[in-house]
Design brief:
The protein is mainly alpha-helical and 250 residues long. It has one domain (46-220). It has helices spanning 8-18, 29-32, 34-64, 70-82, 86-103, 110-126, 136-158, 166-173, 180-197, 204-220. Helix 4 crosses helix 5 and helix 7 (136-158) packs parallel to helix 10.
Length: 250
């Protein structure tokens, strides 16, 4: 008996049943959800601009010559005692802090890389343009301006939910149990003391930044900046490693 022609609908049904359930079939999440794509673009722009503001703040703080932040003070102290170049010590300490944060569930993200590159590049570009005042009053004005820029920059780039730099990431990793504003303050203060013990110079700027930037960032933004289930934003992370579990109250 000759074979009967198969029903077209049945053939199509069997073909559909053989297709893997998770086959993307050329799907593009950004095309499916333009709003999500626009949100990601906005967050990346916010990340870059905020890191640029942070870089200007660092440059102004250094120009005031009244003491740098605790993290930089520690790097300076380690550099002077070890004889290694500043960039090598900075990289080594940064990697250690990122590893510490990652071990507690706060994985590095796009913001981790962007923060390092943009802040460093901005400091290098802006520093030669600053006036370097000699009058003490003018230097304190610079310190006040630097403090505002630092707080705005940190709050802005963390609120983009794209990942944190070494110091902020380490502070975020310990929230909970310690709220970000206090974990960041402890990290900066301990770093400042360590740098001072190693011979680095400290000043009123060191105290101001180390003790008050964390609480000020907390006042500027009440969202959880990285890896928070309650923030409403997914974390933009690097493609490997454990999912971020750390969160901050800053």
């Amino acid at each position: 008996m000759p074979d009967q022609p198969a029903d077209a609908g049945a053939v199509e049904s069997r073909a559909e049943s053989r297709r893997p359930v998770d086959d993307p079939v050329d799907e593009d999440p950004a095309d499916e959800d333009p709003a999500a794509h626009a949100s990601l673009t906005r967050r990346l722009v916010q990340l870059v601009l905020s890191c640029a503001v942070l870089g200007v703040g660092v440059a102004v703080l250094l120009d005031a010559a009244l003491g740098s932040d605790g993290y930089s003070t520690l790097i300076s102290g380690l550099t002077s005692t070890s004889g290694l170049p500043f960039v090598v010590v900075n990289l080594g300490v940064g990697i250690l802090l990122i590893a510490l944060a990652w071990s507690r569930g706060t994985r590095p993200g796009v913001g981790t890389l962007v923060q390092t590159v943009v802040v460093g590049g901005t400091v290098s570009a802006v520093s030669p343009l600053l006036p370097t005042p000699e009058a003490l009053g003018s230097r304190f004005v610079e310190l006040a301006v630097a403090f505002v820029l630092l707080a705005l920059g940190v709050a802005g780039y963390l609120a983009s939910h794209t990942g944190a730099g070494p110091a902020e990431g380490a502070a975020i990793a310990f929230d909970p149990p310690l709220p970000f504003k206090w974990s960041y303050t402890v990290l900066q203060a301990v770093s400042a003391l360590g740098g001072w013990a190693l011979g680095a110079a400290v000043g009123p700027g060191t105290l101001l930044v180390s003790l008050f930037v964390g609480p000020t960032v907390d006042l500027l933004t009440r969202v959880r900046p990285v890896g928070s289930e309650t923030s409403g934003y997914p974390e933009v992370s690097l493609p490997t490693g454990r999912e971020g579990g750390g969160a901050a109250g800053g």
